[in-house]
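Morning F.,

Quick status update on the modeling queue. The single chain you submitted on Monday has been processed. Sequence for confirmation:
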Amino acid sequence: MTDSPQISRPTPTLAQLLDAVRFLTILPVPSADRAPEPDWLMRAMTFFPVVGVGIGVVSAAAMIVGTSLFGPTVGALLAVTASIALTGAFHEDGLADTFDAFGGGWTVERRLEIMKDSRIGTYGALALGIGVALRVAALSLLPLWAALAALVACHAASRGASCLVAHRMNYAGNTAAMKASYADTTLRKDELVLGGIAVALGALPLLLVSPIAVVIGLAAGGVLAAAMAGWAKRLIGGYTGDVLGASEQLFEIGFLLGVAAVIAG
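Structure tokens below.
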């Protein structure tokens, strides 16, 4: 009697990377063949900046094609569209829900209720429209080579920023109804280091172009993401998945505007 073949299981590191890809994108990643740990999402966040690099590369490719065929404005619009398509508008949905909740809710309970509503309101629509417009405008102002480098750096660093928000704040939503597990845990020191390395590698092409642009971009993005985190702490006492999405989006906007101010200003 022959032994049955052993099924190859991914290593913990690879499994966490696959969790990050599955969570952040619409790519057809195979389902996990293991029972999820309570802290699986926090562990996967280590690789959010790595996935961000990949999203930035796809966006940069779309900008190259769009710019070569139609010019910088259409190229910038296609780059932003590519990132939205690849992520299934995941972060944009969080931005809209957060602004609807914070703009239209008068109590913590009502704000959390609005966040769970799939319908979009005035505040959310305005936030989405202005956010997309600012990203497209900033990219279209940059020389192509700078825009490509900024896209990769931006998408890596913005995912890292949302991880830091989750690391430093308490979860404020209804744990019984949450779509993903935000366990009561934080990122370990080695995970923070690995995430920081991924962000640094993503920023390296832009660093070679303009170190000051990287500094100003990170500072501007960090200010907006921190402002969102502070707003969330004041209004609902912590973060939710939607707040993380809004933090990522505001970091993108601030980063691209900061880079454009240095290079195109």
